[in-house]
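The aim of this short unit is practical: by the end, you should be able to scan a pair of folded records and say something sensible about each. We start with the first protein, listed as its amino acid sequence and then its structure tokens.
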Amino acid sequence: SSGINAEYGDAYQHFSRAVNQNPRNTVAAINGAVCLLYMGRLGDSILQFEGALKTTLHPTLLFNLVSLYELKTAASTTKKYQLLDMVTSKTDWEAFPFEFLRL
């Protein structure tokens, strides 16, 4: 298990460097957050997704973040509504796929 954890840690470092070089690198941000999740760092994974949303509103980021909110807390509905408010304030919400929120 510790060997696998180390591999995810190494992968996270690579993805983190890629995001530092290009904050809009959605794939690297998602993969880095997934590495954190697989290392048992749910809270850090959530923070990674939330940070990535500051630079790009990508449906995959939002879908994964909603899933992690559901894993972390029974009060995920409040977090989902906060995401909805954030997305509608920053984008053409009529064209945005909101089914990811699972409200």
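Turning to the second protein, read its sequence before its tokens, just as you did above.
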Amino acid sequence: MGVHWTCATPRQHPEIERYNPTEETIKWDKLYNEAEELLKVNSNLFDDSIRNKVVRKILKETYPNLPEGYETNNLPLAAELNQHCKEFVYWSGTDVILGEELLKMLDDPTQKRFLLKPQWRCIKLVSEPGTIIGAEVQNLMENEVLVIKAKTYVLAAGAVLTPQILFNSGIRPPVLGQYLCEQPMTFCQIVLLQSIVDDIGKRVKRMKLALNPDDPIPIPIDDPPPQCWIPVSEGRPWHCQVHRDAFSYGGVTPNVDNRLIVDLRWFGRIEPKKENCVTFSDKYTDAFGMPQPTFNFEMTKKDAERQHEMLEDMLKCAAALGGFLPGSEPSFMEPGLALHITGTTRMGEKNDGESVVDTYSKVWGYDNLYIGSCGVIPTGTACNPTLTAVALAIRACKKILRNSQPRK
């Protein structure tokens, strides 16, 4: 998310997607509330968009029987409108999470409490039985290696590089890299029906909005794009986004008016499977000198059938909105494109060899090592996993803070 993410921040479905331990309670609503506040999540960002209103209305008519609470709605987004110019959106990133106080600290060269080291990377952790005593890091600009010592270590390098660093450190729980889950994804782009464009034109006329008299398209040039969402629900284990986004595969050529285009992205859910995994080599290394990763992934027959049902559902939605933009007809996207990998450092209640971390994201067998990553999510998920990963990270941070308090 430090470079490019959709900022879509839905909550997982409480039964279909969410992890619910049997012997303790994770206070999901409270954690989600805190994560949404941290990320500045907003579900009404594009309420004033004419296209958003029209597209949402069509989706509600196309899917009239969705369960209560899981109807078509605005896509929750980690973003805020610019208060000085409503046409601009400030999308949440690392700076928003850090907040003004920490950002000011970074600008103060005299303080040593909080530092960010760009162009540094963690190579491995140094350990003694049951505890981490140092993190070996490399300064890429000067090609020097240092060891950083701390009381508590949080490894947060993503769902692939995190297990890679653990493997390189000799920390190799039995299921490290296993139970890898990724979201099958279908995609197409739609040119809005003329009847929909005409309806938008009538709304614009009623609202007495100014249009360029030479513009053949009756949509204000500054009208925000639609950002609609059909959540995961019973009988529909897929997450649906009807919107416009900035990914390269969703770009349009200059001779196509962007106001007429909507993107359809359907994300599927698969069941966690031990054989789906990323493994690391003791013999071969990648371009950075780290253990070479190899991915093994195959859907079950049931999962594959479900993804075809998902594609059929996307076609139903597409038919209600318009025709396919040439070159962006419905297709399954290449595996891994969603970048929503989970399970590689999965969470569990017991140290029984079937999980890497406990329910507070602490690595089994180590008293001061925690994981912050989508990789700790142990369930199959169709919706964007960022909000859930942040919620679990908040839970881990509270545990770390409690453990750091001096005992009375």
